[in-house]
């Protein structure tokens, strides 16, 4: 399993997930740069993602939804702030109200920093989400973000092997 460490820090307002992949840096980058590949791993098993928009550029927006086994859609978005191909990217990650992808003001927004670096013949990925408050971080922790993210990230190995 690629996920090697998960830490959350309510004082620093961060959730950090570290994963190691037995694949070159450029290959791991492609998982995020290609919406069809990203759809195969974004979201836990049983909740496939569909990226409606995918613009991996500063100011770009990625709108997507995940579909539950019961057919219910959950909408969300990313607003890309920086891109350092293949070393990573930063983005704002928020929940959306519906298929309009308007931000849901009732839900937390995370500032995410996804960094990729060569390590031990493969790639180490460090995923850091920073929240506006301890309450916002606790809300996503209570929603199962650690479990869901771990399951999603662990799917990447199968994609890299294909």
UniProtKB/TrEMBL annotation:
- Specify the protein name: SRPBCC domain-containing protein
Q: Which family does it belong to?
A: Belongs to the AHA1 family.
**Pfam families the record matches:** AHSA1 (PF08327)
Please state every residue range assigned to the domain named Activator of Hsp90 ATPase homologue 1/2-like C-terminal.
Answer: 23-160
Q: Output the SUPFAM superfamilies linked to this UniProt entry.
A: Bet v1-like
């Amino acid at each position: 399993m690629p996920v090697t460490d998960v830490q959350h820090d309510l004082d620093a307002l961060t959730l950090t997930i570290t994963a190691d992949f037995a694949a070159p840096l450029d290959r791991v980058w492609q998982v995020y740069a290609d919406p069809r590949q990203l759809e195969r791993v974004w979201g836990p098993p049983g909740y496939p993602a569909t990226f409606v928009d995918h613009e991996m550029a500063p100011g770009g927006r990625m709108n997507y939804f995940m579909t539950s086994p019961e057919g219910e859609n959950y909408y969300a978005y990313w607003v890309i702030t920086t891109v350092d191909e293949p070393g990573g990217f930063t983005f704002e990650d928020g929940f959306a109200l519906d298929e309009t992808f308007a931000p849901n003001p009732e839900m937390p927004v995370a500032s995410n920093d996804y960094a990729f670096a060569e390590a031990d013949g493969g790639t180490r990925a460090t995923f850091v989400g920073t929240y506006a408050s301890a309450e916002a971080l606790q809300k996503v922790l209570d929603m199962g973000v650690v479990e869901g993210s771990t399951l999603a990230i662990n799917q990447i190995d199968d994609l890299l092997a294909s």
